[in-house]
């Protein structure tokens, strides 16, 4: 059994005929033939499709989800010494990009039910140095962006939604990535909408910001060889755009399948007494980038699953407030205060999740977990 099976995805029927794999090969062949490997027509095409889908005016594709975050922070003029409030419970990139700019990540603890930043913890952390909030939409469900935006508006702060795991999810009927000043996502192969390498995108309704994001992603270039500011080489490859265009044909169907897999998991887990199944807020839908539960004796559970050939993963075992590489020593907070993030990092376990996970496999996972939780 695989944790995520991308090969099964390749065998799926594509609406243009044939299987996805052949559509991907056709699209890549077109790029090889036209030769515009950098910012070719496929890049513009996927940006238009994605901005329409998200419901924002501008999509700027990037070289990765990490670069999408970095470029967004640069476009918001985040300077050394500035404070950016974020969650302590995410992939390193969220706070790494803040730290790269010499700014300081300030962590607001998470809501233990959704694992996303708790809006109620934010306001007390705002100082005159605070410039922005990065909320992460973890495991496929958006953070409480509505409440976060309200706090940000009150204090004149910008809000980035790190939607690397939630592309396609909704919040009060609006699409993830289109919920705040800037939304960023990742097309890393295992994300809900993945390419075959690195890729990402920024989304915004603000024309000036969109222009700056675009310029920063091309070395700060505003016209050929005129560089108004320092940027980076942060573009999406045309070949990756071609892969995304092929996968776009099955994306909506895959979201539904992910939700079906998740519902099946939840019903079956609840029936064996595991109630730490994902909690989705009533105004949200999740794309289940991960299907994550909590268990007390996690390392034993992981080894019992492993013995039955079932892979699992931990997202994430060390909270950002305890990562040695980040500027945590400069943070006015002590490490131990984010109790919900600490508890989560000790107890969460993600189970295999992809649109084509069969009921038979789910049953195998459930029966193995049934043995494992006797220890709990
Ligand atoms: C994957 C991920 C990123 C980084 O995306 P890359 O494309 O791998 O650079 C950032 N934030 C979160 C929450 C992620 O899951």
Give me the secondary-structure topology.
Elements: H1 6-10, H2 20-34, H3 41-54, E1 58-62, H4 65-75, E2 83-86, H5 93-100, E3 104-107, E4 130-136, H6 145-155, E5 158-162, E6 170-171, E7 174-175, E8 182-186, E9 200-204, H7 207-217, E10 221-223, E11 226-227, H8 238-271, E12 284-285, E13 291-294, H9 298-307, H10 339-347, E14 348-351, H11 359-372
Parallel strand pairs: 2-3, 2-4, 4-5, 5-8
Antiparallel strand pairs: 1-9, 6-7, 6-12, 8-9, 10-11, 13-14
Helix pairs in contact: 2-8, 3-8, 4-5, 4-7, 8-11, 9-11
The structure holds pyridoxal-5'-phosphate (PLP).
Description:
- With 376 residues, the chain is an alpha/beta fold.
- It folds into 2 domains: 6-244, Type I PLP-dependent aspartate aminotransferase-like (Major domain) (Aspartate Aminotransferase, domain 2); 251-375, Alpha-Beta Complex (Aspartate Aminotransferase, domain 1), CATH 3.90.1150.10.
- It has helices at 6-10, 20-34, 41-54, 65-75, 93-100, 145-155, 207-217, 238-271, 298-307, 339-347, 359-372, and strands at 58-62, 83-86, 104-107, 130-136, 158-162, 170-171, 174-175, 182-186, 200-204, 221-223, 226-227, 284-285, 291-294, 348-351.
- α3 runs parallel beside α8 (238-271) and α4 (65-75) crosses α5 (93-100).
- It is globular, with a radius of gyration of 21 Å.
- It starts with 5 loop residues before the first helix and ends with a helix.
- 47% of the residues are buried.
- Pyridoxal-5'-phosphate binds next to α4 and α5.
């Amino acid at each position: 059994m695989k944790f995520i099976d991308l090969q099964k995805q390749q065998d799926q029927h594509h609406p243009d005929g044939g299987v996805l794999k052949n559509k991907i090969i056709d699209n890549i062949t077109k790029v090889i033939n036209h030769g515009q490997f950098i910012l070719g027509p496929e890049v513009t095409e996927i940006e238009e499709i994605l901005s329409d889908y998200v419901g924002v005016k501008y999509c700027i594709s990037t070289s990765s989800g990490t670069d999408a975050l970095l470029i967004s922070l640069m476009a918001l003029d985040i300077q050394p010494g500035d404070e950016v409030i974020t969650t302590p419970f995410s992939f390193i990139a969220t706070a790494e990009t803040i730290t790269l700019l010499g700014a300081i990540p300030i962590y607001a603890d998470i809501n233990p039910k959704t694992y996303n930043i708790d809006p109620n913890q934010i306001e007390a952390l705002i100082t005159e140095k605070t410039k922005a909030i990065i909320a992460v939409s973890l495991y496929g469900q958006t953070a409480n962006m509505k409440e976060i935006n309200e706090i940000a508006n009150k204090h004149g702060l910008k809000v980035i939604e790190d939607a690397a795991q939630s592309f396609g999810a909704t919040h009060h009927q609006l699409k993830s990535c289109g919920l705040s000043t800037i939304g960023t996502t990742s097309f890393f192969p295992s994300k809900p909408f993945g390419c075959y390498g690195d890729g990402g995108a920024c989304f915004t309704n603000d024309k000036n910001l969109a222009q700056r994001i675009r310029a920063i992603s091309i070395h700060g270039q505003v016209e050929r060889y005129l560089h108004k500011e320092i940027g980076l080489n942060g573009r999406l490859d045309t070949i990756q755009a071609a892969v995304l265009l092929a996968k776009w044909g099955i994306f909506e169907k895959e979201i539904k399948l992910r939700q079906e897999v998740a519902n099946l998991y939840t019903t079956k887990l609840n029936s064996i007494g595991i109630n730490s199944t994902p909690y989705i807020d009533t105004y949200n839908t999740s794309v289940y980038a991960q299907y994550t539960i909590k268990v007390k004796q996690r390392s034993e559970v992981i080894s019992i699953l492993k013995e039955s050939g079932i892979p699992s993963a931990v997202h994430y075992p060390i909270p950002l407030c305890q990562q040695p590489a980040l500027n945590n020593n400069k943070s006015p907070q002590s490490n131990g205060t984010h109790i919900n993030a600490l508890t989560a990092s000790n107890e969460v376990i993600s189970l295999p999740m992809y649109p084509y996970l069969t009921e038979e496999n789910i049953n195998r996972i459930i029966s193995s977990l049934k043995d494992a939780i006797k220890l709990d």
